[in-house]
Specification:
Length: 134
């Protein structure tokens, strides 16, 4: 008579979580043109606590598969992120149809007034087109 096989649901779910995590990181590496076997100098993974618990249990497998550094951390929650505007890039597909021949003047002004434009945007304001000299 066949013996019943014991299945550990928690371990199965953890295995699926690890498999999905590795697949997502590999897909990202592929999109970025990074070889799958190339080291990935990721400092940390942030995710909900339940997910982090499953990943932490399998850190050696994950780190060796994805080639994370030994110092890679699995941290519950969200990272503290501070966003800053570093550059303003004009969208020619929007400028051309709207401003026709003046679009090149606007593009040149944007390129030469980056800092001023960034400060204006960071202060929650817009730059009226009337303030851009011809």
């Amino acid at each position: 008579m066949p013996q019943p096989i014991l299945i550990d649901e928690e371990k199965e779910q953890a295995g699926e979580t690890v498999k999905e995590y590795i697949a997502k990181i590999r897909a990202w590496k592929s999109e970025q043109g990074i070889a799958l076997n190339a080291p990935l100098p990721a400092l940390a993974t942030y995710a909900p606590e339940e997910l982090i618990a499953r990943l932490k249990e399998n850190q050696p497998i994950i780190s060796s598969t994805l080639r994370f550094p030994s110092t890679h951390l699995f941290i519950p929650g969200k990272p503290e992120i501070q966003e800053t505007i570093t550059t303003i890039e004009p969208l020619f597909s929007k400028l051309g149809p709207t401003f026709k021949n003046d679009s090149s003047i606007i593009v040149q002004w944007i390129k030469t007034h980056q800092e001023e434009l960034i400060k204006t945007i960071e202060n929650g304001k817009d730059k009226p087109i009337s303030e851009i000299p011809e």
